[in-house]
Request: fold
Amino acid sequence: MINREDNPDFVNSFLDYTITILNKSPNTVKEYNYDIAMFLKFIMLHYQLTDSQDMKEVIIKDMNIEIIKKITLNDIHAFLAYLTNTFHSKASTRARKVATIRVFFKYLNQKANLIENNPAQNLETPKLDKRVPKYLSLEDSQKLLEVSSRDDDRNKERDFAIITLFLNCGMRLSELVGINISDINFYDRKLNVIGKGNKERIIYLNNACMEAINNYIKVRPKEGIKFDSRNALFLSERRERISNRTVQQIVKNELKRAGLDTRKYSTHKLRHTAATLMYQYGKVDIRALQALLGHESISTTEIYTHVNNEQVKNAIDKNPLNK
Reply:
């Protein structure tokens, strides 16, 4: 991740705009910073404005706006091709880069008035492959919870609560890490989370979640907690808010203990699992599922309306011509 000190002024002005006006989350701003830095480094190489051959070594701090004015739609397409050919980037990765480039040039053109023409105005989003999300079966989910509950580690209550919340609530990794104790309404059994785009939503907590949280809070450290982490629900060994990386490692360890493939499953796959199980077994309405998961578009939620192989088999067996 590039530091703001390494950015040209117009990039930092854009980042300030996304924070103060667009109200983007810190994670989104970091992604914008990374994507733009990578794009500008490519432009330096593409225009042969640097002696460096390695993109990591390209310096963009002194890049001036006159170079930006020369960028065309073809240059952006060349960048996307570079991502595909050099890094084998997936369509979803390129789509994120496209979204960043669009908002960046819109800012330079319409808000900052630094460029007259917007080369990204007709930039199209790469067509995304529609794939059935990977998820744990009901049996594997139960096995994961059972293994986690029998964990002999000193953090077993914390780790079990983490697995329970992922599998029952379908929250994102960043949402789980960001939970504060004050976000939990223990009386009404609900939780306020901050999702993508700084959007707040309510997640209602079932019996399993409440029991897991309460059991963890009983043993949660009470002394020596770092000042800015005192309100954090989940704490690390250092007695500070747990990090994304630590949670990912916890999930990986528990998946291993349950005999599940860690190359196939991850924290995000647990989110897919929760959504799929609620839809398949709970008969949850697609609109309710959209609200629960914090999806802006219903089309994103529709990936969970897939049917499993057994349902397909049953459909074939029920064909009236099956005689």
The chain has a mean pLDDT of 89.
